[in-house]
Amino acid sequence: FTFAPAPTANLGIGTRSRSSSSKALFMSADTPTVTLGIFGGGTVGGGIVEILSKKQSYFQQLTGKNIVVKKICVRDASKPRDFALPEGCTIVTSYDDILNDDTIDYAVEVMGGTTDAKDVVMSALQKGKSVVTANKALIAKDLPEIEKLLSSLDSSGTQFRYEAAVCGGIPVIRSMQSDFVGDTIQQVSGIINGCTNFMLTAMDRDKKSYEDALAQASELGYAEADPTLDVGGFDARSKLKILMRLAYGMDVDEDEISCRGITELTKIDFEYAKTLGGTIKLLGVASKNDKGSVSAFISPCYVTNDDPLSSVNGATNAIEIVSDNLVSSIYIGQGAGRYPTANSCINDIVALAKGDTTPLPFNPKSETKFANNYESVFFLRLNYRDQVGITRQVGEVCENHGVSIHSILQNPIAKSQESAFAIVTEKVEYASILKVLADIEALDWCKGKPFYMPVLREDWQS
Ligand SMILES: NC(=O)C1=CN([C@@H]2O[C@H](COP(=O)(O)OP(=O)(O)OC[C@H]3O[C@@H](n4cnc5c(N)ncnc54)[C@H](OP(=O)(O)O)[C@@H]3O)[C@@H](O)[C@H]2O)C=CC1
Ligand SMILES: N[C@@H](CC=O)C(=O)O
């Protein structure tokens, strides 16, 4: 390949640029090169390689450098890849092939997991390689340790970027790192898992079964390697934890965040949601209360049809940030999939190659406390064996825990042994709802675990 020499602006800022030494790998003998080692050649890794190939000369103009993928580390080197290997790039299976290669400037970690991925990221940083990752599970777990390492490094040119880790293609990390300095964030909420939003849309709108919806989401590259992380809400919880750190400077223990995925949802919940004039979305919500502490949860939520979130379908994500100055900012875009996610990694890679440093220091650690409770209107669904006095007993249980009932819905009973009705409460504490549910579950007519979900806006019926 021969390209015209690129402008030489920005050379050497934040990177260890060199002149190229190999014609096969490098496009021009006198254009500096930044060399990548990518850990992972799957959905995201493949997308990064494809975009880099497609926009190679544009990136050269933009950064003044050739951005070259030298090695891709995978688990199984013999597996066919669905992307073309760049010329001169080799597939390797040992992390050290990248980590110990001094000609590699940036490590891109897109293999997932939290054990080997952590070793790879820490080791790359220690060796002076800037790191770009899409791994929310790792960041949610280990960002403080990574930051500590970063601050101990001699070279401020060694950077760590993770735009793709939250909501795939939406540039929300960058925005939260740089656009809210003069603002105070009160609430961060929204649809932050593409796989489950795709599934809920497929089940509700397209009448697909849960299994078919999940199979299709996996096929399209939306699901995690272990889809339990998606359907169980854990992937969304990792992202919410990262957003909470950026919004409030707090490091909450992930396990403290109430986390319910979409596995408890049944057809009847969608039917009742429809009767109420809305639908169901898996949401992450972190909100400051009037005492200054922050509560958070991942849960299916009832959303009215006139709420903007109700029409966010497929793998699209949407995050609303409520803050004192900007009031409400909504970010909508593709939250999962090859190109949206790779696009965010590419933005990080190109920013590094240009010599940009991370917009601002990460939000400094604050003393903000986590409160494992929140207030909401709740939707409850109870499966029961029909008998006299059920609604009276439910009313009594609610009264015992100070929970006021707003309405009760019951579709005509088709099978007396297998019926379900729904209750909508007034605004109450989550802790009270848990007590109500425990008492109801102990009643002899109650079949299985009652289901509950918050109703998104407290003014939903006013
Ligand atoms: N897919 C998406 O929409 C998004 C994904 N992410 C994150 O990006 C990361 C990658 O996701 P994705 O591309 O979908 O995952 P894939 O499962 O598609 O790809 C993972 C790649 O990593 C390789 N790999 C996995 N484990 C190892 C290991 N121990 N040693 C060497 N190579 C390994 C695999 O090798 P092999 O091919 O040989 O099996 C594969 O090439 C994850 O952290 C994920 O959470 C973030 C946002 C969106
Ligand atoms: N599995 C994740 C991928 C992106 O983060 C999702 O579906 O959101």
TrEMBL record:
Pathway: Amino-acid biosynthesis; L-methionine biosynthesis via de novo pathway; L-homoserine from L-aspartate: step 3/3; Amino-acid biosynthesis; L-threonine biosynthesis; L-threonine from L-aspartate: step 3/5. It comes from Discostella pseudostelligera. This is Homoserine dehydrogenase. GO terms for molecular function: homoserine dehydrogenase activity. Its EC number is 1.1.1.3. Pfam families: Homoserine_dh, NAD_binding_3. One of its GO terms (biological process) is threonine biosynthetic process. Residues 379-460 form the ACT domain. Keywords: Amino-acid biosynthesis, Methionine biosynthesis, NADP, Oxidoreductase, Signal, Threonine biosynthesis. The lineage of its organism: Eukaryota, Sar, Stramenopiles, Ochrophyta, Bacillariophyta.
